[in-house]
Structure formats: structure tokens, C-alpha cells
Amino acid sequence: MDRMTQRLDKHVEWLDQSERRVSEVEDGQAELSTGHAKLSKELGSLQTKVDDLEARSRRNNLRIVGVTESTAKDNMEGFIECLPLQLLGRATFFDLFVVERARGSLVTRLPPVPLRVPL
């Protein structure tokens, strides 16, 4: 009997330790879940802010297509500032606008190739 009581005590002790470990794991999992929810909410908020900033940065941009760099010569910004005034007239604009940056396309132009027609 004494031996069975000792074995039973060992099993009870082992069961208590197992229950404590399971409880600790469950508590840790609950903390991770709440932390994940907070981080997900913050990520959504930050993504909204980034989207808003991107939209605001594009709001005042103007893309002019078809102006060659040879037309603008060396002063692309000055040429782009004068172009709308020349095309639409000064009366169209209340204030002068400022060109912060003007650049050409990044693609290099290839020399013209003669047209070849197979006979």
C-alpha cells in the first residue's frame, strides 16, 4: 500500500506540474493574441496614413507628355514654367506656379532606322 501511495503521489505531482505548464502556455497564447490584435490595428492605421500621404504627394503633380528634350534645350524647368502660359495665356492663371523638378524620360533614344520593306 505504501508503495502505491508513493506512486499515486508522484502521479498527482506530475499532473499538477502538467496543469501549471498548460496554464502558462495558455496565458502566453492569450497575451500573444492580444498583442497581435494591437499590432494588426496599428498596421492598418499606418497603412492608411501611408496611402493618404502618397495620394497627397501625387495631387499636385503634372505630367506633360510629348515635349522633347531638344525643344527645352538646357533649361527644362524654365521651359515647362513658360509652356502653359504660352499655350493657355496669362489670364488663365491667378498665381504663377512653381516647377520643383522637371526631368525627361529615362529611356535613351535610338537613332532612326531606315524603313525596310521586303519584296
UniProtKB/TrEMBL annotation:
Superkingdom assignment: Eukaryota
Protein name: Uncharacterized protein
Protein's organism: Pleurodeles waltl (Iberian ribbed newt)
Native organism taxonomy: Eukaryota, Metazoa, Chordata, Craniata, Vertebrata
